[in-house]
Amino acid sequence: MNLKNTFTISEKFLHRCKGKNIALVDDVMTTGATVEMASQALKAAGIKNVTVWAIARTPETSC
């Protein structure tokens, strides 16, 4: 799945959160691609640190 340029950060959000630490909550993390791209977008927009909280994680599979 290609998630490049999927996430944008609202200027209204940045005004309140730029330079701060935030938590990104995901219900179920599978490959981690979504939280990775969202975290990259947030950090590129000036968020100091992104911590990911996931309620559940799918098992890793080996090929």
Structure overview:
By secondary structure, this protein is α+β, with helices and mostly antiparallel strands. The chain has a domain at 16-57. Helices cover 30% and strands 29% of the residues. It has two helices and two strands; from the N terminus they run αβαβ. The chain has helices at 11-17, 33-44, and strands spanning 21-29, 49-57. The protein has a two-stranded parallel sheet with strand order 1-2. The longest helix is centred in the middle third of the chain and has 12 residues, at 33-44. The mean pLDDT is 86. Residues 15-60 form the Phosphoribosyltransferase domain. It comes from Marinibactrum halimedae.
Keywords:
63 residues, alpha+beta, 2 helices, 30% helix, 29% strand, PRTase-like, ComF/GntX_DNA_util-trans, Phosphoribosyltransferase domain-containing protein, PRTase_dom
